[in-house]
Amino acid sequence: MNFNRIVCFDLEMCCWNDGRESRTGEIIEIGVAELDLTNGEIVRRAQHFVKPEHDEVSPFCTELTGIKPEVIEKNGKPLEVILKSIEQKFGGRHKIYAAWGRDDLILRKECKAKGLNVPFNEYLNMATLFRLQRHVPNRRCGQRAAMEIAGVEWKGRQHSGYDDAYNLARLAKTMFIPE
Q1: pLDDT band of 22, cuts 50, 70, 90
Q2: What are the backbone angles phi and psi of residue 102, rounded to the nearest 5°?
Q3: CA distances from 167 to 9, 124, 161 (A)
Q4: 124 by DSSP, 3-state: which?
Q5: In DSSP terms, which residues pair with 47 in a beta bridge?
Q6: Fewer CB within 10 Å of terminal CB in the chain, N or C?
Q7: For residue 17, what pLDDT is reported?
């Protein structure tokens, strides 16, 4: 296990606002950013578009995430291919993975439904870890609010897996690397 690196990831899923039953749709984007804990550098980033098998990217989803159906059609790959790529490029089971909240459960559920292996063993819920810090006044804050509390300016578009993972790595740096 490599304890010198944390692989931060963020998932974006199909979503609707047209009266459908509220649920999480299939994953359509996985953003990844790897933080080196020895020097505080974000050493690697990636953005992967996932082609859903049963869902579609709605106009609401495009508005929220910025992901257009034609981008998924052109650049999307099956989840299995994406997970293998992440495991090869970021170290898979030899690294600690982290996300804001329970993205691990969403990924595990979809992997189980599709007969795939989750590419990691070790997982950190950064929302819980952040909220446990003594200086955090609001125990129910989102990632963007947490960054404000930590004095880290948000960069990029919220609800972009690529940008959200990068920002999470920047937040993790404040939590794990002394100044």
Answers
A1: low
A2: -110, 45
A3: 10, 16, 10
A4: strand
A5: 31
A6: C
A7: 86
